[in-house]
Amino acid sequence: NAIDGIGGNSCSIGAPEIVTGGKDGSIKIWDPRVEYAVITLDPDKSTSARDCWAVAFGDSYNSEERSVLAGFDNGDVKLFDLRTNSMRWETNCKNGVTSV
Questions:
Q1: CA-to-CA distance for 24 and 53, rounded, in angstroms?
Q2: pTM of the model
Q3: Nearest-CA neighbor of 66 among 74, 58, 54, 78?
């Protein structure tokens, strides 16, 4: 449903990574140098999965910081810390999020 990219040869910071958001609510980080997702952030099993409509990398100005912001069909906006593979912040804007 959604895709964003950062890093690699053009900016000399970090690996060339791609983030995707899916209909199943999962967010995956891909490194084009390998054939599988290097990080998968699945939705909480205790709730129904929401459709991820938007994703974007953030904090990618150096090699130590990495985060992903995701927007969902129900209005959820979630910020994930890729160093700890955990959610750092979340809110709901009451409408589907199509861009972040």
A1: 11
A2: 0.88
A3: 58
